[in-house]
Inverse folding.
């Protein structure tokens, strides 16, 4: 039950972030929460079923978000670079 509620919460937060990002001017800087939602969505798009976030840091005019695949496994993490307009720049999986 808890797992399905968590999935629903992630899906709703991603939907809200996508609506926010799609409705903004392309030069608008997104915040930390929106960058995390974009990073989670990218991991799910790549086949990760459940995702947890680690750090999210704004550096060099982009967000760098660490995501972890659940259940945790060796190499089951990635760094997702997100532009200030909410687009995924790079997905770098762990090894």
């Amino acid at each position: 039950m808890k797992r399905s509620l968590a999935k629903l919460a992630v899906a709703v937060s991603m939907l809200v972030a996508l609506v926010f990002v799609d409705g903004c001017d392309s030069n608008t800087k997104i915040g930390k929460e929106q960058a995390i939602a974009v990073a989670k969505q990218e991991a799910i798009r790549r086949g990760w079923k459940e995702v947890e976030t680690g750090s999210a840091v704004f550096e060099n005019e982009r967000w760098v978000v660490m995501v972890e695949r659940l259940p945790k496994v060796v190499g089951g993490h990635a760094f997702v670079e997100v532009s200030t307009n909410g687009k995924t720049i790079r997905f770098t999986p762990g090894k």
